[in-house]
Amino acid sequence: LHATEDTVRIHFPEKARVSRTNSVIASFWSHFRSCFPAHKWLYHYSLDNLAADVMAGLTVGAVIVPQAMAYAELAELPAIYGLYSALAPLPVYAFMGTSPHLAIGPFALISLLIPESLEAAGFRSDRPDYISLVTTLTFMVGLVHLVMGALSMGA
Questions:
Q1: Is 40 helix (H, G, I), strand (E, B) or coil?
Q2: Looking at the whole model, is its pTM more than 0.70?
Q3: 59-86: per-residue pLDDT in tens?
Q4: Cα–Cα distance measured from residue 68 to residue 76, given in angstroms and rounded to the nearest whole number
């Protein structure tokens, strides 16, 4: 701190600036890595685990395919959209998920709430753009979930 009659100057050494920059980068990198917990176990993954995971995947696939098609019908959508909603999240969760014992994908309550929510807003399922409305609704809900996750509002 250097003071004169007119001004007060604070001098930060270059090391302090670098350490603050490194601290911000390290903090960002730490948060980024916490979003992808697969980096902790991926290096230690073995072929024994692969065989067990393939068997588990086949078992889950045998259950989730007809279940997802039925949930799509509950949401008043074509069955293919149930398959999209059941299978698309799986690879994402494999790298971003934190629990090995968690079911993801569509479920009955959401499948029932989608048409009810749209009908309450005045959109009936017989409209030609119903699929676009459902897609928009789910995209908006997904954005809210992403923001809440980024702000650590659920934990």
A1: helix
A2: no
A3: 888 888 899 999 999 989 999 998 888 8
A4: 12
